[in-house]
Every structure is written in C-alpha cells, then in structure tokens.
Amino acid sequence: MIQPKIAVIGAGIIGRTRARRWTEAGYPVVFGVRTPDDANLTDYANGIGAARDTINDAIASSDVVLLAINGAAMEHAVTATAAALDHKIVIDATNNTGGTAMNSIALISDHAPDPRVDRASSMTSPSSGSLWHSNRARAAAWDLRSSPGISGTRPPTASHRRGKRFSA
C-alpha cells in the first residue's frame, strides 16, 4: 500500500509532534516552512526522517496538508495557498484565540476550490462529541488515524450520531 505524503505546514510543537508520529508510522512527511534550511529544523527533520521544503512546494508535493501555524496568520496563509489546497485533505490544527472562530475550517472552505477539511482535534479524539466537517475528510482522517503508531477510534457517522447503528 502506498502511504499518502503529508505536508506539515509549521514547525512548532504541534507540527513537530504530528510529523514525528506520522514518520514513526511510516508516512512520508515534509515540513513546509518559510526557511527550510533553518539549522534547528534541519536537525529535527533529519532525526525523524522528514523532508523540508518551502510552503508552496511542500503542499504541491503532498496528498495531505496539516496546517499547524499561528491562528492569526491563517487568513494570509490560506489566501496565499488556496489554489494549491485544491483536492487536498486539509487538517486544521490552528487555534485562532483572538478571532471570531476558534478554527479556520470556514476560511479554508471559502478560499480553496475543493479541499477535504477537518479539525485536528476531532481527528485525534472523535469520541469527544466533536462533529466532522465532511464525510470525505472524516474518512481520510480515519485512514491516517488507524495507521500503526497513531491512536484514535473509528469516527462516528451522521447516522451514528442520530442513534442509529454504525455500519463499517
């Protein structure tokens, strides 16, 4: 089975943690950052077996994009990369604590032509009652989450949330 390539946009705590977990599970990961030659990031990426590239090139070369940047920077980042996010699985790990919405799902959906978007929090803990943004993103997130080294449970479907029996 060919593993999807994952672009991790941002190299802070969230981005690095996710990248490490995914490389441990065998996924090819590339950090997309403004300065891919940063010595600290180079050491970290080499240590976990991840690549480094510019943001646009990382997105272009990947099937899945994790956005793990400052929430206040999302509007600029999404408008600058919207076309590249077309038909990608996009995982929003941002928290815009000063904004009108805590996450950036609506922003991504409004600007990118056809992304499959989900929140990282629901990707890691679907049993917490959070809703999945789309069935396609939920299925894609489940595929990633069910890989070795990545914890999580089967995501609920809309019928499951209404009390009907879940069917795989």
Automatic annotation (TrEMBL):
Region (Disordered): 143-168
The Pyrroline-5-carboxylate reductase catalytic N-terminal domain, residue ranges: 5-96
UniProt entry keywords in alphabetical sequence: Oxidoreductase
Gene3D superfamilies found in the cross-reference section: NAD(P)-binding Rossmann-like Domain
Biased composition (Basic residues): 159-168
Signal sequence extent: none
Stated name of the protein: Pyrroline-5-carboxylate reductase catalytic N-terminal domain-containing protein
Species whose genome carries this gene: Arthrobacter humicola
